[in-house]
Amino acid sequence: MIPRVADGSRTGNGDPETPGALAGIPQHPVETTDRDFVGLGLEPAVLEVVERIGFEHPTPIQAAVIPDAITGTDLIGLAETGSGKTAAFVLPIVQRLRRGAGVRALIVSPTREIALQTKAFLDLFRKSRLRVNSACLIGGVKIGPQFDQLRTDPDVLVVTPGRLLDHVERGTASLAGVEELVLDEADHMLDLGFMPQIQRIVSQLPRQRHTMLFSATMPPPIERLAKRYMKDPVRIDLSPKGAASGIEHRLYLVDERDKKRCAVALLDTVPGSTLVFTKRRSDAEWLCRVLERGEHSVARIHSDRSQSHRVAALESFRAGRHRILVATNIAARGIDVQGIEHILNYDLPDTPEDYIHRAGRTARGAAEGVVSSIGTWLDKSLIRQVETALGHPLPRCEAEGVAAYRELRSLKERRKRSPLRR
Ligand code: AMP
């Protein structure tokens, strides 16, 4: 397999022959293989759309997943974010849905933004010979237009869990005929926050179905849980060990009271489009105000903001009108913005998997990027776990004008070296 890089110039808006084919779907360079879509077992009606979109060769995850998915084999697909997972499950699904009526496929996403991107990709098949009709049921927007979408008799539902359950309870959506289930960002869907909702959704589905799970990371306990929903799944693991290549990691250890100064110093000195993660909404708001006063161009996205504000913030960051986007964890997954050069973890995430997910917002496909993290002594154990996951220590760095926190050796280490100890 020869890795190539599709630069996106033949796809979507950049391609004069297919103007706007991928409008609404952000494009960025992606590694492809030397295989052909024809050789993967796709039918002419699907291949016509692939050609119209401008995809010339499948990406590694597409080449690995599509042949099994077409035959209805349950599978767990592990590959980094931005590696072409959407087409890896959408192409086999639209091919398998050729006969029948009613909702036959369900794609569950953890965030509204990912659901909207998947829906935009599915829409490319609506006007094709396949006439695949889909509806998007996500929270944060009015429910009325969703009733209208459901009345058009969709074949596929793309959903976030809460809003789907709302429709199921009202009797406006039925899952009784679902043959195809996809859990996107599955490790997140199966963690504690979402698990009760996923259980309720799965309990509404026929037992006899085809199930596919996709994720960038899959901790073993979650994988064991995931397998309960599947029949002899094949595991296709193309995830890089640790985070994507092309990322430079930097760790800024500071005293708790210096975190804010450190963040501002880094945003003042590290150029390029930057995504900042904070744990608390109040910190996101504070940081935005300080940055605006410092004449930085900054947008923000967190759960206190309406869906229309979230979409507008993401759009203006994507379009380059704002250099900095400050986000709480909701934005960690699925933000598909081309050319993010710098990720700043104002707070470290709770798990090493989340660190890798966040890092995956930069250096997508073949690009390069920097991930800066601000840590305090409280983060010591997590830093060690991240270093184990990456397979190397995080280089310690110092921000301009902010004193670095001096790491002390543990008591055990100090005792070991003490001359008084025999
Ligand atoms: P995804 O991981 O599905 O979000 O896809 C990441 C990006 O790669 C999107 O911009 C897709 O439009 C693009 N992409 C996916 N598959 C291909 C392909 N086979 N050739 C070129 N670009 C692709």
Outline the structure in words.
The chain is of the alpha/beta class and 422 residues long. It has 2 domains: 38-237, Rossmann fold (3-Layer(aba) Sandwich), CATH 3.40.50; 247-390, Rossmann fold. It has 15 helices and 15 strands. Helix 12 links the parallel strand 12 and strand 13 (324-327). Helix 2 packs parallel to helix 3 (85-96), helix 6 packs across helix 8 (195-203) and helix 13 packs across helix 14 (380-390). The longest helix is centred in the last third of the chain and has 13 residues, at 281-293. It is globular. Residues 12-19 have low confidence and may be disordered. Adenosine monophosphate binds at residues 6, 11, 22, 25-28, 30, 32, 55, 58-59, 62, 82-87, 336.
Please give a quick description of this structure:
The chain has 15 helices and 15 strands. It is of the alpha/beta class.
Rg from Cα: 23 Å
Mean pLDDT: 85
Strand content: 15-25%
Present as ligands are:
adenosine monophosphate
CATH architecture of the largest domain: 3-Layer(aba) Sandwich
CA-CA gap between termini: 58 Å
